[in-house]
Amino acid sequence: MKSKVQEVAKLAYECVMQVKDKDFASKYLSYARKLPSMITHNGLLVTVAFAKAKKEQAWKTLLEHIESFLRKEGIKKDKKDLIEFLSDCEVQEYRLITKRVLGFSIWLKRIAEGEIKDEGKGD
Amino acid sequence: MQKEIYLLKTITPLHIGAGQGLGHVDLPVVREVHTNFPYIPGTSLKGALRNWEINQVAMTIGEKPSQVEEKLTKGELKDESMLRLAKIFGVAGEGAEEGGEVGAGKVLFSDGFILLFPVKSAKGIFSLTTCPYAINRFFEFVGLDQRIKEVQEGKVKVLDTKDHKNLINGKLLLEEFIFEAEDSQELKGFVELLKGFLGEENIKRLVCVSDTDFTDFVSNYTEVQTHIKIDLDTGTVKEKALWTEEYVPAESVFVFGLTFLEDIEYSPPSTFHLGGDITTGKGFVKVQRLEVQR
């Protein structure tokens, strides 16, 4: 028996460990730091669209991590693109998803700050 | 024993801190555990008001506020104004021990809970949102036997759809959410109570959303400001000196109560400062007593 927090923290840890030794790790850290406040200020959809538009490996990986979280939680079961999936859900569901992804993104930030060395390469 | 009800409106954003946060805000505001609504702890109210009164007395008798406070703790209450202070806010330390005449304060300050929360609106600048839970809690607090029924998700209740500042063809756009408005006479009593405090204009901004929607608004749409410190020598941002701070937005309305255990001439000033960052314009509030006909 595990609590929700433990599950979310474990997944976030696994995600961060995947990128820890990659060359874009420092960028990943810098974006993971921004992610929670970006979601709260601009909403999840806008944030996802922004991240996609950046066409950078670090953003791309962050989006994959969000997607894997949604899959693991059983929220997203289809093959739809993340933007399409989010635009299709009912407003109450969208809010709940936002809340959940925000919680997960805070874990990504926490763990990335602990695991990845800050080389000041972010923007 | 007499109970007085007060309404409090934030004129500038309010920061009563909850210490170091671990979420997306570094310095969050205090929130109730069971609702996640921002609130005003009684200790913050009492502290700010005590400060204000001590400053008044200090100015009158030409001493420093700290000297006045020292007199209080030592129980030197010969002066009429000192005795009044001691009675309102109580005496701690030596003054309370030696069979002192006061001890604990004779005015009880309640926590202030939120009643109205402003949310950006597509029309009419902002709406003052509330919810059945907040209204019913307010009724219970002031001792009125009225209750509001729940609101369906995605709908809002307003007193009069024709005379409302925020509606566009019966619809309401708050932040990025659209609601359908319906007339509700249920709100009449509530609106009547608040009219004197809010004024004619702001009463037309009042909307009652569902409990869940209200929780969403007060959780996600508070003001978050980013602060930095500038390095004096370089004129650029100091390393590791960037943080975010959360505020309850201006125009929010809270309710609190004062209970008098003795007959004391006391009412809070109509405006004062509360919470943190008051030297940078935060926490300026307006207070007014609410007369309730039971």
Can you give a write-up of this model?
The complex is a heterodimer of chains A (123) and B (294). With 123 residues, chain A is mainly α. Helix content of chain A is 76%, strand content 0%. Chain A is built from six helices and no strands. Chain A has helices at 4-19, 25-42, 44-54, 57-72, 82-88, 91-115. In chain A, helix 2 (25-42) runs antiparallel to helix 3. The longest helix of chain A has 25 residues, at 91-115. The termini of chain A are far apart. With 294 residues, chain B is α+β, with helices and mostly antiparallel strands. Chain B has seven helices and 14 strands. Chain B has helices at residues 42-61, 65-74, 80-89, 94-97, 132-142, 188-203, 211-220, and strands spanning 2-10, 39-40, 107-109, 112-120, 126-130, 155-158, 171-174, 177-183, 206-208, 223-230, 237-247, 253-260, 271-273, 284-290. In chain B, helix 1 (42-61) packs across helix 2 (65-74) and helix 1 (42-61) packs antiparallel against helix 3. The longest helix of chain B is centred in the N-terminal third of the chain and has 20 residues, at 42-61.
What tags apply to this protein structure?
heterodimer, A: 123 residues, mainly alpha, 6 helices, 76% helix, B: 294 residues, alpha+beta, nine-stranded mixed sheet, three-stranded mixed sheet, 7 helices, 28% helix, 28% strand, globular
